[in-house]
Every structure is written in C-alpha cells, then in structure tokens.
Amino acid sequence: MRAYIFAGGVIDPANIYCKPGAEDLTIAADSGWHNALALGITPQILLGDFDSIGADSLPEAKEILQVPAEKDRTDTQLAVDLALSRGAHEMVIVGGLGGRLDHALSNLGVLEMLSERHVHAILEDGFNRVRFLRNTGALIARSAYQYLSVLAADKTVKGVSVDGCKYPLKGAKLSRACGWTVSNEITGNCALVEVRRGGIFVLETK
Fold first, then answer.
1. 143 and 204 Cβ atoms separated by less than 8 Å
2. pTM of the predicted model, to two decimals?
C-alpha cells in the first residue's frame, strides 16, 4: 500500500503530481491539510496537535487523531508512524521542506529511517524532490526539476556513480563537505544514480 502524507510548509502545486488511488492511504499532518486541498485531495485522516490548523475549527475528515502539543515526535513523524502501522510499504511526503529548517532536516532523517525499513519514499514540495539511497541505486526520470544533486549523508561514502547527466561520475568518494556534486543536469530520459557504500541524498530541484 502507498501512503501520501501531507505536511506543512510552502509548496508549488503546479509541479506536484499526486493522484492517490482508492487503495492508497492519505494523511494530513496538521496544516498539511491545506496543502492537500491545494492539490485537490481531501485526506482520509487528519493528525496533529492542531497548533497550526486551529483546534477550534477542524475540517471534516473521516478520522481525526489529536495528539498532545508536548510530545517527542513531530506531527509529520507521527503521520509516518501511523502509515507504517497500517501497512504502507511506499510513501510520498508532500511539503515539509520550506519554512522551518529544523523540521526540514528532521524530515530528511525520516527518509533515512524509511530506507532502513525498506520503504520506498520521496519527499517533495514542488521546488525540490528528495530520495535517500544506501548501498543501492535508483533511476531518476527527467522532469520539470532542472537540477540533480547528490549529497553524502554519512561522513564519507564510496562508489558514487551518476550516468545520464551532463557531468557523469564513476565510483567517486564523497564527504559531507563535498560541494562539487551539486547542480548536475539530466541529459536523456533518465539518470542512474548509485552508491556502493554509504548513504546519500539525491535531490531534484527547480
């Protein structure tokens, strides 16, 4: 089952293609409800402490789950936990990148956690789309996102290759301080990004 999780933050609806099927799970994390509506989607579940959306005027959802404001996990993290508990093996997280940097970095950590649990996940807001890869590879289709960047998530990663781009890479060793793998461009229909040892973030940006 695929889960769509709508987080808060600024999004560009024109560059987000979201079409949940009848069997997919849709969850809004607090003010992520508004981002879902901007995409023409009414989530099945609204979850959060409702400090952003306002607890006095909650929209109508099939299921509303209110959590305490003082908690150890963000609303988005709790929405991911809920999706996992209901059997999701694939996730699309919309939003959660613009605005608060602490939440954005936290959500990148969520991608890493999902990868460790063998859940395919992407995080996008219409300005950026992010994947996390560890000891594996992925085909990245050419899209409205102009640039493709690869950033090390670990202190050092090895065997990083990028094919199908303006600036190809073969078996490179990268560190978190490396900046020369930013702003590549896909030249064909898709690019192949691989890492043999370690974790990387693969970012598509406008």
1. yes
2. 0.92
How many structural domains comprise the chain? 2
174 and 141 belong to one structural domain: yes
Rounded Cα distance between 178 and 156, Å, is 10
- For CA atoms 107, 138, 90, 53, give the dihedral sign: positive
Average confidence (pLDDT) over 109-117: 95
52/29 same-domain check: yes
Domain residues for the domain of 80 are: 2-126
Is residue 83 within 8 A of residue 121, CB to CB? The reply is: no
In this structure, the answer to whether residues 100 and 149 fall within a common structural domain is no
With beta carbons less than 8 A apart as the criterion, state whether 108 and 130 touch: yes
Whole-angstrom Cα distance, residue 9 to residue 5? 13
Whole-number Å distance between alpha carbons of 96 and 29? 10
User: What residue has token string 């690869």?
Assistant: 150
Q: What is the DSSP letter of 59?
A: P
- Mean pLDDT rounded to a whole number for the chain: 92
Residue 188 backbone class (left: φ over 0; alpha: ψ -120 to 50; beta: rest): beta
